[in-house]
Design goal:
The protein has about 260 residues and is α/β, with parallel strands linked by helices. It has eight helices and seven strands; from the N terminus they run βαβαβαβαβαβαααβ. It has a seven-stranded parallel beta sheet, sandwiched between helices.
Length: about 260
Amino acid sequence: MQLELKNKVALVAASSRGLGKAIAWGLAREGTKLVICSRNKDILERTADEILLETGVTVFPLALDLTDRDQIDWLMAETLDLFGRVDILVTNNGGPPPGRFENLGEDDWRQAVQTTLMTAVRLSRAVIPSMKKQKWGRIIHMVSVTARQPIPSLFFSNVIRPAVIGLAKCQSQDYAADNILVNAVLPGYFSTERITELLKDRSEKTKKSLEQATAEMVSEIPLGRMGKPEELANLVVFLASERASYITGAAIQIDGGFIKGMP
């Protein structure tokens, strides 16, 4: 299948490692030019070098804090200066920390909103003018299965991530006439550092070994395993492509069957 992504320009947030990195790799293999960003400059630049050496595509790494509005403005200015446009935006950021409700203060809630919701809002606001001008765009919001099936102790994620799906749905309505397609992707459990952190938290809370906690998590997945980051990337790359030209306003889960309820 020809995805027609060669020489498109993609901005992939939080892409130095984990799912964001896998998405950047997936797009690069289709010939997409990349802007990747994260806080850790060293890891980010290593990722950019790896992608460039294997694929030969242009990769522009920018270290910044995605919760800072001014830094997002700078990110967009640098991107437009280099490429002149943005065709594809993947909003992504580190998941909010776990915790029991009574231990979460107001400042914690404010920070979680900034990290999980406002990052997606600000990145969208930054790219939409460019996309409207060219009458073509793809915005893909990385969310979580917690938006449909709450997970114990993930209060921030359970409460705030549904708002990102609401954002995607509203954007899809507002910008369809500009040929800007907006969708949300809901990953389940994938083999990443984020899942390792959640497993450690579960292990501590239940007083079980890390191996037991892992086995219990996997037992919740009908396919009997965690996902591979490249499997998530395959979905995102498709949604970014011309082959997904009639998909907008969707919230698509990719979870090995973890979500038990009807969509």
